[in-house]
Amino acid sequence: MAINQGFVVIGAQSVFFSITELKTLADLERGQFPVAIGEDIFATHQISPETVDNVVQALQNVAQVFQDYGIDRQTVVGSHSFFEADNAQFVWDQVVSRTGWQIQRATLSQEAFYRTQAVFARFPDFAKVTKAGTVLIDISSGSVELTAFTNGEFGFSRNLSLGPLRVFEVMSDVQASVPNYVEVMRDFIDSRLVDFRRLLPRGSHYPHMILMGSALSLLETLIPVGQTAVETDRDGFDLLYHEVIHASDQYLADTYELPLTQVSQVLPTVLMVYRLIKTLTAEKIWISNLKMIDGLAVNQALESGYKPVALDPTKEIIMSATNLSDRYQVDPKHRDTTVTFALQLFDRLRNLHGLGKRERLLLQVAALVTDIGSFVDTHKHYEHSEYIIQASELMGLDTIEQQMVATIARFHSSDSPQIDLGDLPLMSTQRRLVIAKLSALLRVADSLDASRQQKIQKIRVSQKDDRIVLHATANDDVELERWTLARKGRFFTAVFGVAIELKGRLSV
Predict the structure, then answer these.
(1) Does the domain spanning 124-289 belong to CATH 3.30.750.24?
(2) pLDDT digit string (tens) for 7-38?
(3) Does residue 136 contact residue 147 with C-beta atoms inside 8 Å?
(4) CB-based burial of residue 423 (10 Å sphere; 0-12 exposed, 13-18 middle, 19+ buried)?
(5) What is the CATH number of domain 313-453?
(6) CA 442 from chain center: how many Å?
(7) Where is the Ppx/GppA phosphatase C-terminal domain (predicted)?
(8) I need a labelling partner for 353 at 20 to 30 A (CA). Which of 85, 135, 220, 396 fits?
């Protein structure tokens, strides 16, 4: 039996919706209702009551469409732009109470995650295109998200607060006062790209670029009907750029059939893409009409047990954590050893901890990034790890999960205070217990490479009534690891109610 589900994304300028058949990812219906959330936020930092009314009306219209199709399952997500407003929490509560729909909050890293799932699943010949270095650029009204792929694999993601509507609002005073408005805007955009250039991996080359996002109204008119993307090159985009910078608003509206309310974003959008093409020396450019809402459908299909595409979403999450670890120069041998032991302990002690696949992933992510604080200072590095993780983008994790990973990293060290579940008032009791259990497992795993020399080659776990015994096969003496585990294992005993000890023998 086909399962149809509704999806809604509240963006900065539109409420997008789709009805998707999860088994095949075929869309039964899709559309959008314009709203002016971004104009309110970027101009006054407040969402006005009139705009709230428009959002509610748009959602009620979507609800009617869903009802007409007999849809009783829906996912409603607010983009990060929606939550930038100073009164966002009040607006969220008003919208929820007036529509009856719960609105999930998407972080920047989640939005990037959904977009990559959309292109993995729906972009034509994605694997072939991304064999060469490729940057996926999603342009929304308030921000630009850049996600890099090499050899078909996710590389890194960066977010810039440089969306065209935000740029237009910032530069609106300049437009009326300077004759060389385009040059000033170009310099403004270039100044915001400085940090992005600095963070690019050395020696990287990205000849391919995929453009997508809610702010590409003009560019999407170039896509043939029924297709999801169209290819061009630098020369083709140069022609479009020179046409736009010399065109009047009325010409753009008439030629590209754009509402006058969107024309103001055309110049900053095209100028921004033009400068990014120059920065990355891109040679081939694809313009796509895929959006975050498409990734929501892909993600839900996978979570519902359907396999419409050969896609493992956890790979992106793990790669994102690995990239963060590399950025802060974590010792890869110790990191990978800790990850291996942590996952082995998790798998072999399932009947003790009772946790599932998602918690296993959180443990893996925590093990990858737990030592990044040493980049700042090895003294109390666990505290530095915590705030770096919370301030970073870990693709695919929601806000609570990212906070959980940060807290696990904080408590992985025996030098940190013993975890007090009362210190985490914003977490549910269940999540606090998960944090404690994963922290205990990570402490043990970290202990097994206390010397940072990877002495232990493999472990065997035996579970007795009152203790867990780790039988290690090692290539050298493991007294330091045994002593470290005796200290760090006290927390494991406190959490699980059983002692843990290490026995080692030299490999022949």
Answers:
(1) no
(2) 999 988 889 999 999 998 999 999 999 898 88
(3) yes
(4) exposed
(5) 1.10.3210.10
(6) 24
(7) 320-486
(8) 396
Alpha-carbon distance 92 to 78, whole Å? 9
| Spatial contact of 481 and 456, defined as CB atoms under 8 Å apart | yes
Per the rule left: phi > 0, alpha: psi between -120 and 50, beta: everything else, 334 is alpha
Longest dimension (CA), the chain: 81
The amino acid sitting at 18 is S
Residues 6+ apart with CB under 8 A from 497: none
String of b and e for 254-287 (b: at least 16 CB within 10 Å)?
eebebeeebbbbbbbbbbbbbbbbebbebebbbb
pLDDT in tens, 172-190: 777 778 888 888 888 988 8
Question: What residues does 78 pair with on adjacent strands?
Answer: 10, 105
Domain locations in the chain as residue ranges:
4-106, 124-289, 313-453
> Which phi and psi (to 5°) does residue 93 adopt?
-65, -40
102 alpha-carbon distance from chain centroid = 21
Please tell me whether the overall predicted TM-score, pTM, comes out greater than 0.70 for this model: yes
* HEC letters along 342-365: HHHHHHHCHHHHCCCHHHHHHHHH
210 in Cβ contact with 128 (< 8 Å): no
CA distance 278 to 314: 33
CB 286 within 8 A of CB 231: yes
Q: What's the CA gap between 315 and 212, in Å, rounded?
A: 22
